[in-house]
Design brief:
By secondary structure, the chain is α+β, with helices and mostly antiparallel strands. Helices cover 57% and strands 15% of the residues. The strands form two sheets. Strands 2-4-5-7-6 form a five-stranded mixed β-sheet, covered by helices on one side. β6 and β7 form a beta hairpin. It is globular, with a radius of gyration of 21 Å. It starts with a helix and ends with a helix.
């Protein structure tokens, strides 16, 4: 049962979240006004105006990514609220797709989730469901969340071909996020009956006591991927730049997160910058 302290913490988190959103709205408005001012300036040539607008937008994007990563790691979301956002994310599949998505609500008294856990949990489930849609075999999927006070427990079960295993390409992006959050993932399949994914995400990360990773601890390819991650580009751009597959990039990023003891790409870039 939620205590008075839990309720107070949840309200404080909601108030802080509202304040941050208002601050971000002001910053975005200022950015857009600055871009428009540059594009409308009679003192700048077209090329100079575009260059100025690109510079303003690029700086704003970097600031937004940094702020978003910081918020995910500090804000709390009630487990029921996080699950409701997941339902909203998947609503188009429920309304317009052929997949019957069933939701099993988490307990209302479950502990609030750290922002990065809530965000990753939704991304994990979305990735799993979209993989099932792409497969085209499953007709029904059941999504169940629970919380034991120390971990978020998630289960995704389908009625598909039952051939899914932990080494499939469709599972790799899920495994990357689970590993980054020090969680565990298991896949059980029964041929002709479907597959079940069980994911456990800890709500309290363990202290990081590992020695700092150096370049000598990385493979040549991992150093290439890390160099591009620190520039802020996405996995697809990294794959194209290095001439490797997207899944290979995800595999290397997961290894880099583990080796550096990082939970997000921003933490990984910061750790690499510290050397």
């Amino acid at each position: 049962m939620a205590t008075d302290a839990d309720i107070h913490a949840s309200r404080s988190a909601a108030s802080e979240h509202a304040r941050i959103l208002a601050d971000q709205a002001d910053r975005h408005a200022l950015t857009l006004e600055s871009i428009l001012a540059a594009l409308r300036s009679a003192r700048l040539t077209d090329a100079a105006a575009r260059a100025e607008a690109v510079e303003i937008a690029s700086a704003a994007l970097i600031e937004l990514r940094t702020a978003t990563d910081r918020q995910r790691s500090t804000l709390l979301e009630p487990v029921t609220g996080a699950f409701s956002r997941l339902r909203a994310d998947l609503r188009p599949l429920v309304r317009f797709g052929d997949l019957d998505v069933q939701f099993v609500e988490p307990p209302t008294t479950g502990r609030a989730l750290p922002g990065d856990v809530a965000h990753s949990a939704r991304a994990i489930v979305r990735t799993a469901v979209l993989a099932l849609v792409d497969d085209g075999v499953a007709r029904r999927v059941r999504i169940h969340w629970d919380c034991d006070g120390r971990n978020l427990l998630m289960q995704v079960r389908d009625d598909g071909a039952g051939t899914l295993d932990a080494h499939d390409d469709a599972i790799r992006p899920i495994a990357e996020r689970v590993v980054a959050l020090e969680g565990s993932l298991s896949v059980a399949s029964t041929l002709g009956w479907g597959s079940t994914l069980d994911i456990v995400l800890p709500l309290d990360p363990s202290p990081r006591t590992a020695d700092a990773t150096t370049d000598s601890d990385l493979t040549a390819r991992e150093r290439d991927v890390l160099r591009l991650v620190t520039t802020g580009v996405g996995n697809r751009e990294i794959a194209e730049g290095l001439g490797i597959s997207l899944n290979t990039v995800k595999y290397h990023v997961a290894n880099l997160l583990r080796k550096h003891g990082a939970r997000t790409r921003a933490e990984l870039a910061a750790a690499a910058a510290r050397g």
